[in-house]
Write a structure and sequence with these properties.
The complex is a heterotrimer of chains A (292), B (463) and C (537). By secondary structure, chain B is an all-alpha fold. Helix content of chain B is 74%, strand content 3%. The radius of gyration of chain B is 21 Å and the shape is globular. Chain B starts with a helix and ends with a helix. Chain C has 3 domains: 185 residues, no CATH class; 235 residues, no CATH class; 44 residues, no CATH class. Classes of the chains: A mainly alpha (292), B mainly alpha (463), C mainly alpha (537).
Chain lengths: 292, 463, 537
């Protein structure tokens, strides 16, 4: 059991960083340059962890970051990695999709508290944007997931995964998938919904005051979290994976799709993204709901 | 024991004013106490009819039924409390005589068994009321008194029209006999009689659209006298009016008409009170409103509704007694009666009295007013008068606005004047408040009495 | 005249109320007569066995709370409070009286609803719903709530939010489930009720975000939360009832915690607005932690018990396949995160906006209520089905099937289940592990001493600049189309119109009572002649 968990964490951590490295590479090629090496993120995080000094703003700052990391890990532990398997499924039999959806918000709350406690107004601006964007993002996403739950008459992720033996949910409920995907792009922090954490916005972004090991923790949890989200969509819409290879392959394909979309589109403002998300993907998902 | 004692004793006692000027206030209490005791003994022998002369069409008759006994006892009780309250004031000849005469007037009204007798006591009570209005002896009081006199005379004229028409067509003045022969008159004559009666009594029972005079009168008179008007006088007229209506088996359309007038009266009174700036006027409007509800309550030939109406008569009379006496304390202290005085006094005792009074007026539990309202509303729903029921509820909401506003004023943070109230007055107010709460929680005895009274009124025949 | 019966439903509500009252009485004991009267009236309502007793308790609750409120609140707010609540009371009286006229008895057990003809049933439902809507602040009847919560005594706001808002819920359960029974209720009307509840939730959540006063934010939050309860009860089945009861408990304790926390801050600093607070985290760490626990409970996040009730609401809606309703509820719930964050940021995080000289020391009694709330949230997080055990008695007494659960640690919502004990333990375990890892990394941490030592676009901020930006959280939301519509409209216009019209007509009508004698006489004569001409054929 503990071995399973340990393995899951390592897996998520490494592949999260790997994908991030790949993202930078692919984006670079799209832009016509070469990009940093794929393992750059690992190097960055090791460097950050080994920095001699980190600035802390007090115990709440410390605790907030730990909270954030806990949130990411615990979310991951409630999603089964593999289909039809007794290994690498974490604690998913004690929870279900609704639990996962709410655990996903736990990390950002810790993040927000950590950022708030350092007193930098730009950090809070980032948090506000993030929370506002969340209102938009979750509409089509939740509609799609609700549709899936009702269609499968269960909220258990393993069951929804297992029910896709004939046809993937992405093709069985295409409109739901499209709606969910558009909002998923935002969840992953890719354009056009990346106003919150985009590099150009970093000064008004959440991570303004993070340094040293705190920043490293933030990056790590971000990696784990991204992988977790990819995993969720793969399990729900793309049929899950019976073994590790399939898992890596499917998550990578999904990730690639997100990256490619992200590279093509320019960035919405916060207000713009909410308005777009409320209109287009929501309507698509709602129509998809009627066909359940 | 004769019914006539109730008329005779106060009448003859009025002559004592020649001898005992300084002890009049005690005599007043004594008279009322004696009358109460007499009432207690005479009630066991109901019904009683007494004719003062031989059975001719012109006979003067007095009848004591459960209905009239109830009202008579109520009036004597209120008068007793009133005189007890005034025991600390100086004796005044005018108040002594006038209160006695007023008492005679109303007792005679409810006890009369023939219509001319009613007219006599109608006049006695009216004239006494006119003079009572002027007691303050200032310009406003005289103004009010003259206004009252003129309008009251109009009422008397209409009553006379009714009496004359009846006598010319039926040939008798006895109420029961009239009731038996009423249907033999032509339809138009019946209508004329009923209409004249309605106008005549309507003016005195302060019903819309005949009550435009009332509010100014209440404002012109001192609060203490207003208790007599509000608690005693208007109730007597209502009882007589409806007693006659049921005795004569009037057409149901007539009662429907009175119910409509009642609800309109209630509504208009409460709405007008919203923006009133004088406490006496506010209380006057409240009285007008409750009289409207009583009109509704008496207009249905249904035991439950009538029971509720009788209960309301009792509760309203004692509540208004308590409220006007409290208002009198404030008026004496501040010399004026605008609603601002509610912001300026400091007396936890008075505030509680006002709270109890207002909540009972609104019909909120656990006070007596609630039981009355509940009974009336249940009865209305029982006969299918849902719109009437809804109207009463909605208009009560309007009533709540200004009553609670007054209560909010007491929490205002202005500098306040402390008011001390002598022990006797406190005791009387407190006992009335206690009664209101008591009958709210243990209403069954009073409900039972009210039901008997109600069936005696509706029954028509003398019971 | 009074008729009482000890029922499990009554016990639940009364114990909740008693707990709140007692934990507040440790802090301050004023208005003791009125508060006792209020508690007694609540007991009368909860243990009533006939309609009249219920009504008596209801009205005493209305006027006793009015007198407590009017001690502190402005005239207009007090008037709004009593008019709306008396309106609710009178609607209730109307419904009771109509029921009585057909059934002939006030006792709950003797009210057989099929004695009431069909055409009267919907009006009765509507009257009852008006009462419930006013009391539970379903829009547009919520007009009295926010000002009342804001202007009353800070500790009384706790009672208002935690208990009195539940009176409407209790009424719903007693009338629609116990007395009338679900089989008589058509789902069309209650579909509308469910939607009204969730729309109230959404609108109130957005309004909460844009408030600058702490109490108003919590007031709107209360409206939103009670909206959930009304929605889920309107689903009309056993799991809906269970979800509603669970949320009632959670909301009571969460609001107890949050309002007392706010009251503590107001006591200490004397300020009630976010724009005047900020950065109190390090001076009052205990209060901060308690508020964070409250926030997690309010937003309904695991691992705390706030999630349990949300979970039950979602599973009920999923079972009944009410997808759109579920989407709306989840939307409102996500919006709640914003005002939850604003609450914690505006007070404790960010930069301080004030000087500390005027601070008072907080008496320890303020912590009692908050700790009670925290303990309940943690307890029910670990053993969520502890509450279900209690509810099963209620469900059985009302004729529903009890929920079975495998263990106390697991919460079974029919459609899905989760294990609260596991979630809580994993959370704590991982937290400790990561904490240890972070601690063990042997590098020094430099603690920042000066609050102004932040990266600020290459400049150095000085103490005069207002750095507490976050209090304005939510202002930018009004740029989004539909939110602007919500935030700029208010029911105030319509209610004020009613008031203005009534007052104007009063001014006009009362002129009649000022006219001179001759005109009065003229009117009387005219009245007489008109009626005479009409009546005489």
């Amino acid at each position: 059991m503990f071995l399973d968990i340990f393995f899951m964490i390592i897996l998520a951590y490494s592949f999260g960083f790997l994908y991030y490295g790949l993202y930078r590479n692919i984006s670079a090629r799209v832009h016509g340059r070469f990009g940093p090496p794929i393992i750059q993120s690992f190097i960055d995080s090791i460097k950050l962890f080994s920095k001699e000094n980190s600035t802390s703003f007090g115990w709440a700052f410390y605790a907030g970051i730990i909270f954030m990391a806990t949130g990411a890990v615990i979310t991951m532990l409630f999603i089964p990695f593999l289909n039809h398997s007794t290994h690498l499924i974490g604690f998913s039999q004690y929870g279900n999709l609704i639990v996962v959806l709410y655990l996903m918000v736990l990390g950002p709350l810790g993040n927000a508290i950590g950022i708030g406690s350092n007193g930098n107004p730009f950090g809070v601006m980032g948090v506000t944007r993030g929370l506002t964007r969340l209102i938009g993002l979750e509409m089509p996403f939740y509609i799609a997931l609700i549709g899936l739950m009702i269609a499968n008459q269960t909220a258990d992720i393993s069951t929804i995964m297992a029910n896709q033996s004939e046809i993937y949910n992405a093709f069985a409920h295409p409109l739901l998938f499209i709606g969910a995907f558009i909002s998923f792009v935002g969840f992953m922090g890719a354009s056009p919904f990346d106003v919150v954490g985009a590099p150009q916005e970093i000064y008004s972004g959440p991570a303004t005051e993070f340094s040293g090991k705190f920043f490293a923790l933030a990056l790590s949890q971000s990696a784990i979290f991204s992988f977790t989200k990819l995993l969720l969509i793969v399990n729900l819409f793309l049929g899950g994976a019976d073994n590790l290879f399939l898992l890596i392959a499917k998550t990578f394909i999904l990730f690639l799709a997100v990256v490619l979309v992200g590279n093509v589109y320019s960035r919405f403002t916060t207000v713009g993204s909410v308005e777009f998300l409320i209109k287009v993907p929501t309507v698509i998902a709602l129509v998809g709901l009627f066909f359940i | 024991m004769s019914i006539l004692y109730f008329i005779a004793i106060p009448l003859l006692a009025s002559f004592l004013t020649l001898f005992f000027k300084n002890y009049l206030r005690y005599i007043s209490v004594a008279i009322n106490a004696i009358l109460l005791v007499l009432a207690y003994f005479i009630i066991e022998n109901l019904p009683i009819t007494e004719n003062l002369s031989f059975d001719s069409p012109l006979a003067i008759s007095f009848v004591l039924t459960k209905g009239s006994a109830f009202f008579m006892t109520l009036f004597i009780g209120i008068s007793f409390l009133f005189s007890l309250y005034n025991i600390t004031q100086n004796s005044r000849r005018d108040i002594f005589i006038l209160t006695n005469m007023l008492l005679i007037g109303v007792i005679g009204l409810v006890l009369s068994g023939d219509i001319f007798n009613i007219y006599i006591f109608f006049e006695i009570s009216s004239i006494t009321a006119y003079i009572l209005t002027s007691l303050n002896r200032d310009a406003k009081a005289y103004n009010g008194a003259i206004k009252y006199m003129i309008i009251g005379s109009i009422a008397s004229i209409f009553l006379l029209i009714a009496i004359i028409t009846i006598y010319l067509n039926i040939g008798t003045l006895n109420l029961i006999t009239i009731g038996e022969r009423f249907g033999y008159m032509g339809a138009n004559t019946q209508f004329l009689v009923l209409l004249s009666l309605f106008i005549g009594f309507g003016i005195k029972t302060e019903i819309f659209p005949l009550n435009f005079w009332a509010v100014d009168i209440y404002q012109a008179t001192s609060s203490k006298i207003n208790t007599l008007f509000s608690s005693i006088l208007s109730k007597a007229y209502i009882f007589v009016f409806f007693h006659i209506a049921y005795l004569w088996n009037v057409d149901s359309k007539y009662l429907l008409f009175t119910a409509m007038i009642g609800v309109i009266s209630f509504g208009i009174a409460e709405v007008s009170s919203l923006t009133s700036k004088d406490t006496k006027r506010v209380f006057a409007y409240s009285t007008l409103g409750q009289l409207g509800v009583l009109f509704i309550g008496f207009s249905y030939n249904n035991i439950t509704i009538m029971t509720g109406a009788i209960f309301l008569v009792f509760m309203h009379s004692i509540t208004k007694l308590m409220l006007f006496l409290s208002l009198d304390i404030l008026e004496q202290r501040f010399g004026q009666s605008s609603i601002e005085i509610f912001k300026q006094f400091k007396s936890p005792f008075l505030i509680i009295i006002f709270i109890i009074g207002f909540l009972s007026l609104l019909g909120l539990p656990p006070f007596g007013g609630f039981i009355a309202k509940l009974t009336i509303l249940s009865g209305l729903a029982g006969v299918g008068a849902y719109i009437m029921m809804g109207a009463i509820l909605v208009i009560s909401l309007v009533e709540a606005v200004y009553l609670f506003r007054l209560l909010s004023y007491t929490k205002d943070t202005q500098p306040k004047v402390k008011i001390s109230i002598p022990l006797l007055q406190k005791a009387i107010l407190a006992s009335i408040a206690f009664a209101i709460i008591y009958f709210g929680i243990f209403p069954n005895a009073l409900l039972d009495i009210s039901q008997q009274v109600a069936s005696s009124i509706i029954g028509g025949v003398h019971v | 005249m009074f008729n009482f019966a000890i029922t499990s439903l009554g016990n639940l509500f009364f114990v909740l109320s008693l707990t709140v009252f007692v934990s507040l009485w440790f802090i301050k004991r004023d208005n003791i007569i009125l508060q006792t009267l209020l508690l007694t009236s609540l007991g009368i309502i909860f243990y009533a066995n006939d309609l009249i007793t219920l009504f008596i308790g209801w009205e005493i609750m209305s006027w006793s709370s009015y007198f407590i409120i009017s001690g502190k609140a402005s005239l207009q707010t007090s008037q709004k409070y009593i008019i709306f609540n008396l309106g609710a009371g009178f609607a209730l009286l109307g419904a009771i009286v109509i029921i009585y006229s057909f059934v002939g008895s006030f006792l709950y057990s003797e009210i057989v609803f099929n004695k009431i003809p069909i055409e009267f049933r919907t009006p009765i439902y509507i009257l009852l719903l008006v009462t419930i809507f006013i009391k539970s602040a379903i829009m547009p009847f919520h007009y009295w709530v926010v000002d009342t919560y804001e202007e009353s005594d800070h500790l009384f706001s706790v009672i208002l939010s935690a208990i009195i808002s539940k009176a409407g819920i209790f009424l719903f359960i007693v009338f629609f489930i116990k007395i009338i029974g679900y089989k008589y209720l058509q789902s069309n009307l209650f579909d509308i009720v469910a939607w009204l509840g969730v729309i109230t939730s959404i609108v109130a959540s957005f309004k909460a975000i844009s408030q600058d006063s702490m109490k108003r934010l919590l007031a709107y939050s209360s409206i939103a939360q009670v909206g959930y309860i009304v929605t889920i009860l309107a689903i009309l089945n056993g799991s809906g009832l269970e979800a509603g009861l669970y949320h009632t408990i959670i909301h009571t304790f969460v609001k107890l915690l949050l309002f007392v926390n706010i009251a503590s801050i107001i006591y200490i600093t004397g300020k009630t607005k976010f724009s005047e607070l900020g950065g109190l985290l390090y001076e009052y760490p205990a209060l901060f932690i308690l508020l964070v626990i409250g926030i997690i409970g309010l937003a309904g996040m695991p691992p705390l018990a706030g999630f349990n009730s949300k979970f039950l609401i979602y599973t009920t809606l999923l079972e009944e396949k009410k997808a759109l309703l579920l989407v709306a509820v989840m939307f409102s719930s996500a919006t709640a995160f914003l005002y939850c964050y604003k609450l914690v940021y505006g007070i404790y995080l960010g930069q301080p906006t004030h000087s500390k000289e005027s601070y008072q020391k907080l008496p320890n009694s303020y912590y009692i209520a908050q700790i009670i709330g925290t303990l309940i949230l943690i307890l029910l997080a670990i053993v969520p089905s502890l509450a279900i055990e209690e509810f099963n008695t209620i469900l059985i007494s009302l004729g529903f099937k009890p929920t079975d659960f495998k263990s106390l640690f697991e919460l079974n919502g029919g459609f899905a289940s989760f294990n609260g004990g596991v979630i809580m333990s994993i959370f704590i375990a991982i937290f400790i592990v990561i904490l240890l890892i972070a601690y063990k990394l042997k590098n020094k941490t430099r603690k920042v001493k000066d609050r102004l030592d932040i990266s600020y676009c290459g400049e150095i901020p000085n103490p005069n600049i207002n750095l507490h930006y976050g209090y304005g959280l939510g202002k930018e939301l009004s740029r989004i189309g539909f939110i602007r519509v919500i935030l700029t409209n208010s029911s105030k216009r319509y209610w004020e119109q009613i008031r203005v019209v009534t007052e104007d007509s009063s001014l006009i009508i009362k002129q009649f009572y000022n006219i001179s004698v001759q005109n009065i006489g003229l009117i009387i004569i005219l009245f007489f002649t008109t009626l005479l001409l009409i009546g005489v054929q």
